[in-house]
What we know:
By secondary structure, the protein is α+β, with helices and mostly antiparallel strands. Strands 1, 2, 3, 4 and 5 form a 5-stranded antiparallel sheet that branches. A hairpin with a 4-residue loop joins strand 3 (50-52) and strand 4. The chain contains 2 helices and 5 strands; from the N terminus they run E-H-E-E-E-H-E. Helix 1 (13-22) packs antiparallel against helix 2. The chain is 19% helix and 37% strand. It has one domain: Alpha-Beta Plaits (2-Layer Sandwich), CATH 3.30.70.120.
Amino acid sequence: MKEIKAFIHRNRIADVVHALKNSHFCEGRCNLSINDVAGSLKALDNIEQNFSIELGEGIITEIKLELICEDERIDEAISLICEHARTGQSLAGWVYTTDIADATPIGN
């Protein structure tokens, strides 16, 4: 199994999630979570840009998408995320992939 962590612009997350669900990607052993994070992607406009007093620089609220999937579906997942997370910028985010050694379901 693999874990994907993707950092993308907030305004692209709905398209990414819909693409994953519409392709029946999240059936079977699929675990998807979405979190707001402070990040350093280039802001798309002034409205998206904030200033962090703690960091002393500009930040935006990005989305961190975490997805657990079977090894044989990793390329499909990355392709869907990259295709639907595009913003028109040369760098619209990052996708990281790691191996999962074990997964234990939590039962009753």
